[in-house]
Amino acid sequence: MQVVGIVLVRNEDVFVEQAIRNVLGFCDRIHAVDHVSTDRTWDILRTLAEEYDHVDARRSHHAGESHRLIEGYAGTQTWVFGVDGDELYDPARLADFRRELLAGAYGGVFKIASNVLNCVALDRAAERATGYPSPPSRSITKLYNFAAIDSWAGDGAERLHGGTIAFRPGYDGRSVDNIGERLTWDETPLRCLHACFLPRSSRDPEPGDVAAGRPILEETGLHDRTWWGVVKRRLRPPTLPAETIDWKRQKYMRGDLVTVDASSFFS
After folding, report:
1. Strand ranges (E), 47-114
2. In angstroms, rounded to a whole number, what is the distance separating the alpha carbons of residues 90 and 96?
3. Which helix (H) or strand (E) holds 7?
4. Which pLDDT value is given to residue 209?
5. Are 77 and 180 in contact (CB under 8 A)?
6. Alpha carbons within 13 A on the beta-carbon side of 163
7. CA 194 → CA 84, 115, 197, 267, distances in Å?
8. Cβ-based neighbours of 220, under 8 Å, separated by 6 or more
9. Dihedral pair phi/psi, residue 250, rounded to 5°
10. Which residues are paired to 119 by β-bridges?
């Protein structure tokens, strides 16, 4: 049994190093893919790959190539953990959770979701984070049991999105354990600070509207940066910024605004 991390990032140099360092002990291997960033993200990934033998870093012009790095784990005793550059997991909790995971405690499910705080403020000096919790907001945890499937192939926008899954008997797309539905933020073994409403790149302006986060063009599915991808984007109607911002509010700004102790995420 093993845990394999898959990281796909573009212009995430504010949090990406911390995001990866926080899961180094949880993952047996980490595939880090830079989607042709224009900030320091690629330099950070290369440095981490040089420092740690179980981290490999590469660049890709098409985000869908990141899924092909993990297709071969289908049908094996592998949990695949999708981590974004704005997702900071609690490393101390992950250490205990890894033991449970590898002991087979969650072998009966295909996906694990859990507790998330969608941050509108993160004060590292005071070690406090403020945001909207999941639940009731949407959980963004991406931890998949590849022993539950025979394959996950086909054209997808990026890793763990799209394509066709061939499930093994006893599993389907509804085989999900959302830990957050039964455990609180203080109790859960798997919790994440999601910096979705904060600048994540040194190239991002400070947002005037906290719900907007980074510039809309970074959030509208620019998965293919090859010449053909450029042509397709020019031919399709533009995404309206207001629609994108409203979508983020609906998914990630539910419930009451809370403040939590964030010291364990930066230890």
Report:
1. 55-59, 78-83, 87-89, 111-113
2. 11
3. strand 2-9
4. 45
5. no
6. 22
7. 9, 10, 8, 17
8. 239, 244
9. -65, -40
10. 131
Q: Which helix (H) or strand (E) holds 95?
A: helix 91-102
* DSSP three-state, residue 73: helix
Give the span between the Cα atoms of 210 and 182, in whole angstroms.
30
130 Ramachandran zone, left/alpha/beta (phi>0; psi -120 to 50): beta
Show the tokens assigned to 253. 């700004």
What is d(CA 57, CA 48) in angstroms, rounded to the nearest whole number?
8
Rg of the Cα trace of the chain?
18
CB 223 within 8 A of CB 229: yes
DSSP-derived secondary structure letter, 126? T
> Can you say how many angstroms the Cα of residue 54 is from the centroid of all Cα atoms in its chain?
19
Q: How many CB atoms lie within 10 A of CB 148?
A: 21
Q: What is the pLDDT of residue 23?
A: 98
Q: What is the pLDDT of residue 237?
A: 52
For the chain, what percent of residues have pLDDT higher than 90?
A: 72
How many angstroms separate the Cα of 111 from the Cα of each of 68, 103, 104, 166, 258? 19, 16, 13, 14, 27
CB 74 within 8 A of CB 152: yes
154-184 pLDDT, tens digit per residue, is 777 777 888 889 999 999 999 999 999 999 9
Side chain identity, residue 191? R
User: Which residues of the chain register pLDDT less than 70?
Assistant: 206-245
Q: What is the pTM of this model?
A: 0.86
